[in-house]
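C-alpha cells for chain A. Residues wanted.
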C-alpha cells in the first residue's frame, strides 16, 4: 500500500556496482545505504555485495528484506559462476520479489560472455543476438544469445523474475526498475568445456559473425 516503508537489498558481486546504482537513484546516501520514494513508497536500499558464503549476516539480511535486486554487469564464466552462487543462495520458497538488472554504461550496446568451448571472454552486440558467431580464439561457432536470454537459461529463471536493463547516469531508468519491483510487493549452463586457464586471462575480444551459409552446426 502507498506510504509503506520497504527494505530492498542490492545484491552484487562488487560493492562499486551497488554504489553506482545507489548514487543514480537515491540523492541522499550514507555509505552503502540510501532512501528513495517510489510511487508513494519509502524504499530503503542497502548494498549486500560479495560471496554469500563469506559475507557475515548475508542470509539473515535476505530473510528480512521486502525485495531484492540482483545487479549484473558481465556474464563471462567467472562472473556467471559468482552470480549463480548468489542466486542459488536465495531462499527457494522466498516471498520477497526479485528483479535482475543489467547495469549498462551510457551508449553501451554490447555485453560480455565467454566462449562456450574455450572460455575466451567475448563482446557480443545486442543487434547480433540470434546470429551465428565464431570465437576468434578457438574458431568454434555458436549461436549468439541475447543478454537476458542467456542469463535466464543459465540460471533457469522462472517467469516471475524480471530481467531489466538500466543505464548508469540515467536515474529514470533505475527508478523505473525499482518501481517494477515495488509493484510486485502488492501481490522468490551451458557448460564451458576444455577450459584453458591462460585463455581465461586474455582481454575480451569481439565475437566474429559467421556467414549465413556456414556449414557449422548449432
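Reply:
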Amino acid at each position: 500500500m502507498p506510504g509503506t516503508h520497504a527494505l530492498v537489498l542490492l545484491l552484487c558481486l562488487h560493492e562499486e556496482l551497488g554504489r553506482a546504482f545507489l548514487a543514480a537513484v537515491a540523492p541522499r546516501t550514507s555509505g552503502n545505504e540510501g532512501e528513495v520514494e517510489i510511487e508513494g513508497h519509502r524504499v530503503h536500499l542497502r548494498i549486500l555485495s560479495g560471496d554469500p558464503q563469506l559475507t557475515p549476516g548475508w542470509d539473515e539480511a535476505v530473510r528480512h528484506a521486502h525485495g531484492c535486486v540482483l545487479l549484473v554487469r558481465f556474464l563471462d564464466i567467472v562472473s556467471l559462476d559468482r552470480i549463480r552462487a548468489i542466486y542459488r543462495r536465495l531462499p527457494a520458497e522466498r516471498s520477497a520479489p526479485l528483479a535482475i538488472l543489467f547495469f549498462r554504461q551510457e551508449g553501451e550496446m554490447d555485453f560480455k560472455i565467454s566462449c562456450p568451448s574455450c572460455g575466451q571472454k567475448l563482446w557480443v552486440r545486442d543487434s547480433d543476438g540470434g546470429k551465428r558467431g565464431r570465437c576468434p580464439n578457438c574458431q568454434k561457432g555458436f549461436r549468439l544469445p541475447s543478454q537476458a536470454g542467456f542469463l535466464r537459461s543459465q540460471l533457469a529463471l522462472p517467469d516471475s523474475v524480471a530481467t531489466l536493463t538500466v543505464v548508469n547516469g540515467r536515474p529514470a531508468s533505475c527508478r523505473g526498475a525499482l518501481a517494477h519491483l515495488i509493484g510486485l510487493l502488492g501481490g522468490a549452463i551451458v557448460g564451458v568445456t576444455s577450459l584453458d586457464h591462460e585463455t581465461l586471462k586474455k582481454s575480451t575480444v569481439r565475437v566474429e559473425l559467421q556467414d549465413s551459409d556456414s556449414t557449422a552446426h548449432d
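Residues 133 and 209 are 4 Å apart (CA to CA). Confidence is low (pLDDT under 50) at residues 187-195.
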